[in-house]
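Record type: monomer structure entry
Structure origin: computed from sequence
Chain ID: A
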Amino acid sequence: MMRFIASLIACVSALFVTGTATAQNLDTQILGRMPLPTKDPANLWYLDLSTGGRVVIWLRPDAAPKMVDRVKELTRQHFYDGLAFHRVIDGFMAQGGDPKGDGTSGSTLPDMKAEFNFLPHVRGAVSAARTADNEDSANSQFFIVFQPRLTLDHKYTVFGRVIEGMEYVDAIQRGEPPANPTKILHAYIGSDNPPPYTAPPPAPVVAAPTLSLTDAPAAPLGAKAPAAAARKPAPKAPPAKAPTPKANAK
C-alpha cells in the first residue's frame, strides 16, 4: 500500500515540474514514445519580451501541425513584433497575439480548425486562444499558462511549451488590459538564426526647463508680496488743541 501511494505521489509531482527533460519523459510515459527533440531549431519559437529576456517555446507539430505552421508563418511576417499581452490573469494565464490589443481580432489569414490533442494545460503550456462559442476560431492569439489548468484540456489547442525563460513569463504585467502592458519586442523561429536578445532602450528622461530672470513666475497665491522700496512714512496728524472753556452763561 505504501509503495502504491509513493508511486502515485511521484507521478502527480512529475506533472508540475517544469523542464525540458521532464517534459520529454512525461510525454514518453503518456504516449509510450519519445516526442520530437526539443533542440530542433526548426521547432523553437523565440519571444523577446519587454520584461527583460527571451522566452523559448518548444513547438509541437506532432500534436498541432496546423497551428504550428500558422505561428511560423506569422512570425516570419513579423506579425507578432510589438504586440502586447492584453489579458493577463494572475494564477491563470497571459494572452497575446491580437493586433488591436483588446482580444477581438487576429491576422488576415483564415481561422483554424481545432486540433485538440493529448498535451495538457500544465505550467508553461502554450495554447491557441479562440472565441467561447466556436471551437474552430483560433487564428493568431495564444496564451501561456501560469499554473496547471487541466479543465481546458481537449477544449483548446496546446501547440507548445515554454522550456526556457519562464521567469520572464511570470513577470508579464497583470490586468485586463494591463495599465502598462508587456510587449513582444520580436518573435523568431530558431532555424532563422535570430540575433541575441536586446533589451529595450530606457525611457528618455525629460529635463526640467531652466528659467531666466525674465521668466520668473509671479508670486503664488498666498505668498507675501515683496516689501516696497523706500516707502515714505505717512505724515503725522498735528496734535489736537485743548478745548477752551466757555464763559459762564449769564
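Annotation 1: The helical segments are 2-15, 20-31, 65-76, 166-170.
Annotation 2: The first strand starts at residue 44 and ends at 49.
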